[in-house]
């Protein structure tokens, strides 16, 4: 099964993708994570990507399409979760072509609906384990009191450079201008399923499970 998790910054795409990896042996393809890895490479491309990301703008289509293309080679396990990709109509068309070339299809696009106020709270309180990437939140999912990641026991945590109110405003603007048209695009194809992303993490996971069973 191949699915897209679609939603604004902080909607919980990464959090839910990690659960699907655990529960269904799927492969999480997060273009945000791939780009964050590229920015630490020290290359000219990495530096340019870092500047764009820190402003909260979208990286060019050809870069992210190239990243995804590489990952579709090899073992597919329980299928792919596209997390934060596609984000433009051009990326959506490219994904359709890539899947066709690999003789596979998209099974569902899960829209995670969360209102803007909750997004600001979620993003400004987020941290992640520097080793395994487990996602925490100062308010809704605090780091364990012993200072060790609950998944891997690592003791360092990161906060993202674009997790501040200014960059978030720009990220939201990019979402509404360039990514939200994908809702109509996938609705017209019959792939769109909408879940309420505002509940507890377990409730949202259950709603996604029900949407995928349809
Ligand atoms: P990316 O890394 O994809 O960021 P994003 O889309 O802004 O989304 P986030 O990762 O911030 O949020 P999320 O939905 O994963 O939420 P999470 O689960 O962490 O992209 C970053 C940048 O890279 C872009 O701005 C762009 O520059 C570039 N980029 C990436 N892909 C691109 C593409 N395809 N094209 C062009 N450019 C691209 O949860 C957030 C917080 O909420 C956490 O603290 C979590 O614990 C908490 N939380 C989660 N669920 C719940 C819940 N149900 N209740 C309470 N709290 C919750
Ligand atoms: Mg994410």
Question: Top keywords for this entry?
Answer:
single chain; 214 residues; alpha/beta; five-stranded parallel β-sheet; three-stranded antiparallel β-sheet; 9 helices; globular; binds BIS(adenosine)-5'-pentaphosphate; binds magnesium ion
Task: Flag low-confidence runs.
Answer: none
Please identify the structural class as seen in this structure: alpha/beta
Tell me, briefly, the overall form. globular
Q: Summarize the main sheet.
A: 5 strands, parallel
Strand order of the largest sheet: 2-3-1-4-8
Summed up:
The chain is α/β, with parallel strands linked by helices and 214 residues long. Helix content is 48%, strand content 15%. Strands 2-3-1-4-8 form a 5-stranded parallel β-sheet. Strands 6-5-7 form a 3-stranded antiparallel β-sheet.
Describe, in plain words, how this protein is organized in 3D.
Helices cover 48% and strands 15% of the residues. With 214 residues, it is an alpha/beta fold. The strands form 2 sheets. The chain has a 5-stranded parallel sheet with strand order 2-3-1-4-8. The longest helix has 15 residues, at 165-179. The mean pLDDT is 96. Magnesium ion is lined by residues 13-14, 30, 32, 84.
List the helices and strands and how they pair.
Elements: E1 3-6, H1 13-24, E2 27-30, H2 31-39, H3 44-55, H4 61-71, E3 80-83, H5 89-101, E4 108-113, H6 116-124, E5 126-129, E6 135-137, E7 157-158, H7 165-179, H8 181-189, E8 192-196, H9 201-213
